[in-house]
Amino acid sequence: MDSQFGLMNVWSQGDFVTKAVAVLLVGMSLASWIVILIKALDVIKYKRHANNSQDFWHSEDFATALDKLGKDPSNPFRALALEGREAAAHHRNTKVHLHDALDVSDWITRALRNGIDEFTARLQTGLAVLASVGSTAPFIGLFGTVWGIYHALMSISSVGQATIDKVAGPIGEALIMTALGLAVAIPAVLGYNALVRGNKFVLTKLNSFAHDLHAYFVTGARVQSSSDAPTVVPLKKG
């Protein structure tokens, strides 16, 4: 209850700057939580797609394998498989463009890399918000504290004496701004770190999937590494 009354007093007794700092911190907190929730749901979905991507290779032909990836257009593994198929078909059927200077391996590598880069950019959308909030919220809260203490000291100087009852209230209300800044920054930092780890897992799986796709479209088989020696897993083109 004390913190609630403190926040109410900060709002009721604070000037324009104090209220602006409080509103800014609350807005930053809302923005960071929205980003955390949306991106966390995306990471969970992409992890599910990553875990299901191995089913792609347990198929007799490419069409069946593609169906096993589902119909979700946001599935990066499905999108990458389609990119590779289109790149292979384009290189095979077109003979009059400048890309003929590249062999099929380089052409497919370029197409798959472009697909991964586009997905990486989409995956990292919003992380800059969390990084900005995590790095600036404590200092914004500290600014509110310094501003509140300054006005508290000015009020004390006008009275002429600094008793506990005159100092405790204003100083305590000013320190609430520091606590509010930390309360905004800590979830943003923790959310950023968790999302970066999740994104790294998804990108690792996607790069491995792209490597297998490259081997498949160039050689007609997937090269699968094992502890003894690499094995070739054939998959009919379709």
TrEMBL record:
Residues 100-201 form the MotA/TolQ/ExbB proton channel domain. The chain crosses the membrane at residues 20-38, 127-150, 174-195. Pfam families: MotA_ExbB (PF01618). The keyword Protein transport applies. Signal peptide: none annotated. It comes from the Bacteria. It is found in: Cell inner membrane; Membrane. Keywords: Cell inner membrane, Cell membrane, Membrane, Protein transport, Transmembrane, Transmembrane helix, Transport. It is a multi-pass membrane protein. The keyword Hydrolase does not apply. InterPro entries: ExbB/TolQ_transport, MotA_ExbB_proton_chnl. Belongs to the exbB/tolQ family. Involved in the TonB-dependent energy-dependent transport of various receptor-bound substrates. Protects ExbD from proteolytic degradation and functionally stabilizes TonB. The accessory proteins ExbB and ExbD seem to form a complex with TonB. This is Biopolymer transport protein ExbB. It comes from Variovorax ginsengisoli.
